[in-house]
Amino acid sequence: MKTIEIELYKIDELAGQALAKALDKLREATEFDHAFMTEEFHGVLEALGFTGIECRFNSFGSQGDGASFTAHYAYNIDWLEDLGFEDADLIAIGTELEKLRIRSAEIMASGRYCHSGTMDVEVIEGDTALEDGLLTEARCLADRYYRQLEIDYNYQFSDDTLMESARANGLEFTADGEIWS
């Protein structure tokens, strides 16, 4: 039988290229958890009068990246109460939607990209001249969602967060930064 000894290190014991490699390996092994942000976004949309919501987003940093959603929209008279918290941007959007008072509309998205520019609106019941106003507010919501996702993504994959996760999970690394299983 052959015995091999390997020195293992905690994340805080690594430096230079070994630390950089360990962080890269942790990024590769980490999946972006956007469930909370998406759930919160759905809640905001529902409070504002959107139902049957389907969200799409992709990546951060490439052409065509962004977020969009499809949904049915009907003005919700209780939107401010249903929103449940004060946020100046959301209140401004809600106020604009309130001015429109569209009874029924469909928010659509098409194409291979996911950004808000792929979204369109069809008013089913109400003044079709108001479609542009609804589309503007829907796009503002999609862009806001994307910005929040990007902030959360950058947080989840930051060096500090990855190092804290490695500490909390007791991960060990070889001298060259490989994760030891």
Strand order in the largest sheet: 1-2-3-4
| Biggest sheet details | 4 strands, antiparallel
Q: Given the helix and strand composition, which structural class is it?
A: alpha+beta
Overall structural domain count: 2
- Low-confidence region ranges: none
Strand percentage: 15-25%
Helix tally equals: 6
Radius of gyration over C-alpha positions, nearest whole angstrom: 23 Å
Helix content: 40-55%
- H and E string: HHEEHHEEHHEE
Number of strands: 6
Distance between the termini: 21 Å
Overall mean pLDDT: 92
What sort of overall outline do the alpha carbons produce when their principal axes are compared?
elongated
Keywords:
single chain; 181 residues; alpha+beta; four-stranded antiparallel β-sheet; two-stranded antiparallel sheet; 6 helices; 45% helix; elongated
How would you portray this structure in words?
β5 and β6 form a beta hairpin. With 181 residues, the protein is an alpha+beta fold. α2 runs antiparallel to α5 and α4 runs antiparallel to α5. The protein is built from 6 helices and 6 strands. 45% of the residues lie in helices and 19% in strands. A 4-stranded antiparallel sheet has the order 1-2-3-4. A two-stranded antiparallel ribbon has the order 5-6. The chain folds into 2 domains: 49 residues, no CATH class; 122 residues, no CATH class. The radius of gyration is 23 Å and the shape is elongated.
